[in-house]
Specification:
Elements: H1 5-25, H2 29-52, H3 58-81, H4 87-109, H5 120-141, H6 147-177
């Protein structure tokens, strides 16, 4: 039972994606904010349970980041459609994630699977993206002007998204062009 609990929590986070999209498009930004907070807490809880009780699974290792990306990308796209985020940040965030997923898929097709591990800049990038989404949802839900904080977070998230994409691309190019033996699962 404990082995599958983190994965069930992650699936629950995926189920929250359409809820948060509905909340944003319905103008219920306070609900969207609290659903986003609940999703963040669930991410921390499933990670804690998986590590603490040695309940990590290969399925969970793939599912967890997919759930995170589905949530963040959906929120970014929806906030942009609603005019709350500029298109350029959404294009940067979504393009980076598509590039990474495409590189992993291409590596598998080429029979040179790449080991997936987050870079430090990627963790900083994710934190900035989460912070920006939370600030936009909170300022809309609680009706306050985020002012320059939003502008600063836009620049930080945008810059880190670009740097992270470049770092992954460089790392992937080194891997794919290396003569090292192919990775095995």
């Amino acid at each position: 039972m404990i082995q599958s609990l983190p994965n069930l929590i992650t699936v629950g986070r995926i189920v929250l994606v359409p809820v948060v999209i509905w909340a944003i498009t319905s103008g219920n930004m306070l609900l969207a904010f609290w659903v986003f907070v609940a999703a963040g807490i669930s991410d921390a809880v499933d990670g804690f349970i998986a590590k603490r009780f040695n309940a990590q699974t290969e399925f969970g290792a793939y599912l967890d980041p997919l759930a995170d990306k589905a949530l963040l990308m959906s929120i970014y796209v929806t906030l942009s459609i609603e005019g709350l985020l500029p298109r350029w940040i959404v294009i940067a965030v979504v393009s980076r994630d598509i590039m990474i997923m495409g590189a992993v898929l291409l590596s598998w097709i080429m029979n040179k699977p790449v080991e997936i591990h987050p870079l430090v800049v990627s963790k900083l990038n994710t934190a900035a993206q989460i912070g920006l989404a939370a600030l936009v949802l909170a300022s809309s839900g609680f009706k306050f002007d985020a002012g320059q904080a939003k502008d600063v977070l836009l620049v930080v998230a945008g810059g880190l998204t670009f740097i992270s994409a470049a770092a992954y691309l460089i790392e992937w190019m080194r891997h794919i062009t290396s003569d090292a033996p192919e990775a095995s699962k």
